[in-house]
Each structure stands twice: as structure tokens, then as C-alpha cells.
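pinned: reference chain
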Amino acid sequence: MPQLPLDPPVAEFAPSGEHLTPYDHEHLVTYLRLLDAEADGADWKEAARFILHIDPNRDPERAQRTFESHLARAKWMTSSGYRHLLRGDPP
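pinned: its C-alpha cells
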């Protein structure tokens, strides 16, 4: 597997389709960090600030939308998306 970016910029919305995208491949570390934050009981605002680099005090609606979208995609990766990775499906 090629080197994954550790902290790529995030779009406001993560992909939502049933196939992996180049964006998903680029953001695997972001998804893992969000899942870890949730498992640790971190506040969504803290995750938005430190993982997604969006200030929830300055732009609360965008921060929450982006957080929820990326966390949902991270959870999809754990239930379905990982199969595409294991098969080596191209993005």
C-alpha cells in the first residue's frame, strides 16, 4: 500500500456512495482518527478542531456537518468499505 497522507485537507462532505473513492483512500487516517476519538468519548467539537481543522466556535454548522459526514463514512468503512480495500479494488 502506498504511503497514506497523515493530515490531508477535508471536504465539507465525505463521499457517500457504495464504492471506495480516491478521497476515501486519501482519508483513511482521518477516518481512523475519528473512530478513535469517538471510542475515547471525545467531544465532536474537539474532533472537528483537531482532526478536521475546523473551528466549531467560528463555523459551528459547517464543523458539525463535516464531522458527522466523515464519521459516518468512517463507520461505513468498518462495516462495508474495508472489503474493497481487502480485495484491492481501485479507487
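why pinned: Helices lie at 22-26, 28-39, 44-50, 60-87. The longest helix spans residues 60-87.
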